[in-house]
């Protein structure tokens, strides 16, 4: 698939560069045939499949071949050393003894894969030693949050994303704690511009920067990514977004049906059916 996209993808035009455009232009049948020709694999027929979660499996998970992988939550996919959080050092120590591989996931997490049963205690001990064994014990909101890099890395950024995410999560976590929703999986995604590299339009809470400290707020996507969200407030600061959503989150905790996701509930209970957008002070 990678070499097919490398050879046929339109990498000269950023707006037309993704694999989805290659498939849209040439057709799924052509794409499947090209991948089969290159790989020597024959795909079986289409089978029904339901996406029920977008969250990566965390902690130790068994594999079909008898090995293990460890799913490690990384906020925004960032591996670095900061005071009290020596992630880079810990992973370097694991790499020195690890005979399997490291895999980065589309949800910005990491798996330490191909671990034998005998190796597990040593890897666990390194995570413990650096205080990282509890990385997966985070709020459901944090475990599902994504952001793009934005400032200072991306030249297209109109506002902050990765650097503002931790503070934003803390504020929302306080609200969710108060509503008894600490463990609930809710997807929140932030990007520094409308290009949407962290897929904010599929988030139950999506924030897309339009200018410094100004974001378009989107609500109402399904948690499992099968329905896009809709614009709820066209220009809002992160703090005002928290203020605007606080009563909505409290209502959700009280009014939702068993198992109903935040995005699904917002889609019918909060989002306007007309084109009236909300700003702070507007009763939702
Ligand atoms: S969403 Fe925009 S700011 Fe963020 S990485 Fe993509 S292009 Fe850059």
Low-confidence stretches: none
Tell me the name of the CATH homologous superfamily of the largest domain.
Answer: Sulfite Reductase Hemoprotein, domain 1
Oligomer: single chain
Main-sheet strand order equals: 7-8-9-10-11
Average of pLDDT: 94
Fold-level CATH name of the largest domain:
Sulfite Reductase Hemoprotein, domain 1
* Structural domain tally: 3
Taken as a percent bin, the fraction of beta residues is 15-25%
General shape: globular
What gap, in angstroms, lies between the N and C termini? 45 Å
Ligand inventory? iron/sulfur cluster
Alpha-carbon Rg, integer: 21 Å
Major β-sheet annotation: 5 strands, mixed
Number of strands: 11
Number of DSSP helices? 9
Helical content class: 25-40%
Brief synopsis:
With 284 residues, this protein is α+β, with helices and mostly antiparallel strands. Helices cover 32% and strands 17% of the residues. α2 (19-26) packs across α3 (28-39) and α7 packs parallel to α8 (238-255).
Please provide a written account of the structure:
The longest helix is centred in the C-terminal third of the chain and has 18 residues, at 238-255. This protein has three domains: 2-39, no CATH class; 59-129, Sulfite Reductase Hemoprotein, domain 2; 140-269, Sulfite Reductase Hemoprotein, domain 1, CATH 3.30.413. It is built from nine helices and eleven strands. It is α+β, with helices and mostly antiparallel strands. The strands form three sheets. The chain has a five-stranded mixed sheet. A four-stranded antiparallel sheet has the order 1-2-6-5, with no helix packed on it. The protein has a two-stranded antiparallel ribbon with strand order 3-4. Bound molecules: iron/sulfur cluster. Iron/sulfur cluster (SF4) is lined by residues 148-150, 154, 156-157, 161, 191-193, 195-197.
């Amino acid at each position: 698939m990678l070499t097919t996209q490398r050879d046929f993808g339109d990498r000269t035009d950023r707006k037309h560069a993704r694999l989805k455009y290659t498939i849209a232009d040439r057709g799924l049948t052509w794409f499947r045939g090209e991948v089969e020709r290159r790989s020597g694999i024959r795909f079986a027929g289409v089978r029904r499949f339901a996406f029920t979660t977008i969250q990566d499996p965390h902690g130790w998970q068994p594999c079909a071949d008898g090995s293990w992988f460890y799913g490690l939550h990384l906020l925004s996919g960032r591996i670095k050393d900061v005071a009290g959080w020596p992630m880079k050092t810990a992973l370097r120590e694991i790499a020195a003894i690890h005979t399997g591989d490291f895999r980065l996931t589309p949800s910005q997490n990491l798996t330490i894969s191909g671990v034998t049963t005998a190796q597990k205690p040593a890897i666990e001990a390194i995570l413990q030693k650096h205080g990282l064994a509890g990385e997966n014990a985070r709020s459901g909101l944090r475990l599902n949050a994504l952001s793009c890099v934005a400032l200072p890395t991306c030249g297209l950024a109109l506002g902050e994303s990765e650097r503002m995410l931790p503070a934003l999560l803390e504020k929302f976590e306080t609200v969710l704690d108060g509503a008894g929703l600490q463990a609930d999986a809710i997807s929140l995604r932030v990007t520094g511009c409308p290009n949407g590299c962290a897929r904010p339009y599929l988030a139950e809470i999506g924030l897309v920067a339009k200018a410094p400290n100004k974001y378009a707020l989107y609500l109402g996507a399904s948690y499992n990514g099968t329905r896009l969200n809709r614009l709820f407030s066209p220009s809002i600061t992160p703090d005002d977004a928290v203020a605007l959503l606080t009563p909505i989150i409290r209502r959700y905790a009280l009014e939702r049906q068993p198992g109903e996701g935040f995005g699904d509930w917002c889609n019918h209970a909060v989002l306007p059916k007309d084109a009236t957008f909300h700003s702070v002070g507007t009763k939702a």
